[in-house]
Amino acid sequence: MSGRNILQPDTLTYKSTVFDFDFHPTEDIIATGLITGHINCVRYNPGVGNNEEVWSVRPSKKSCRGLAFSHDGAGLFTVSKDGAIGALDVNTGSVLIKKPDAHDHPINTIKLLTENILATGDDGGTIKLWDVRTGSETMEYTEHDDFISGLDYDPTSKVMVASSGQGTISIYDIRKPKMLAMSANQDDELLSICIVKDTRKVVVGSQEGVLNIYSWGDWGDCTDRFIGHPNSIDTICKIDEDTVATGSSDGIIRIIDILPNKFQGIVGEHEDFPIECIKMSRDKTYLASCSHDETVRFWDVRYLTSEREEIEDDSEEAQEMTGDNQKDSDDEKEATEEQSGEMDVDSDDSDAPKKKNNRRPKKQAPAASNPGFFDDL
């Protein structure tokens, strides 16, 4: 993973810990949330000194634990330690609305599931779904009794999966008021979760540094485990359906192939500081990470996807060449048979289906219009 021409944006450096960040869905913009309650919006550009701060605000004195851009990028949803949910205008940073006491406990995680549905999970184990058009709560799930550490979502089945500090994962059809399933307790805090393998597998990071792998629909217990991280796996980011990046409390970002399970290499590190979050940019050019070293760092990861694409292209080309060679052979055979007066017999052809424990639970396109969050309030 060395010897490449890598050009990435400068590191974003702050005066306090960055708990979370999110990439804008259509622009080269990143928003960061700090332990002080500050939220910053930066336009990032490759090269030294090319980042541009768009705005910096402090809508709450309580720590910002999570961020999520709206579907169109016009709004930025925020969650904080005081249990409040807010929405900011991405153009100006102004507060569009704040819903205090949205949760009874500090909110730890946030994820935009669909264009209109926002999910939040808190330190007490409660998960809530919100309709961003009206600001109304649509579902509340209370099966967990410890913090919700991570959420992921499959849009095809409309199923959400959640990891928790109590050592279990839970599964929900977001159209239904009751939980679908809960896994057996792993006797270990589960800190991160990610759907991979075209929704056939779910990988879950643990406090003990084990990647637990669940088969979709078989939620009773994990069906495979990847051992090798020396410290807790606090965050997971999907690179593609077969590969994930993991952020650990030892400060290292690793690339892991899933089934077959293989350690591929290290993308970067934050020295010995625990990593809070890692995410991919909208165009998959950069992997960004934030850590207790009060920075957000960018890592050029184009080689991770380009190499895989080259392998797939080479494989397809080889198959095409094999097919062409076979066709030439068949043509020659047919010509020979015609010359000898023999008739070719038809045959059936068929296509083969081919953190150390971060118990603080974690946490321009932009249009000028209000993203619609809590419009009715």
From TrEMBL:
Coiled coil: none annotated. Residues 309-319, 331-350 have a biased composition (Acidic residues). The keyword Repressor does not apply. Keywords: Repeat, WD repeat. Residues 308-377 are annotated as: Disordered. InterPro entries: WD40/YVTN_repeat-like_dom_sf (IPR015943), WD40_PAC1 (IPR020472), WD40_repeat_CS (IPR019775), WD40_repeat_dom_sf (IPR036322), WD40_rpt (IPR001680), WDR55/POC1 (IPR050505). It comes from the Eukaryota. Pfam families: WDR55. WD repeats lie at residues 100-140, 141-182, 275-302. Belongs to the WD repeat WDR55 family. PANTHER family: WD REPEAT-CONTAINING PROTEIN 55. This is WD repeat-containing protein JIP5.
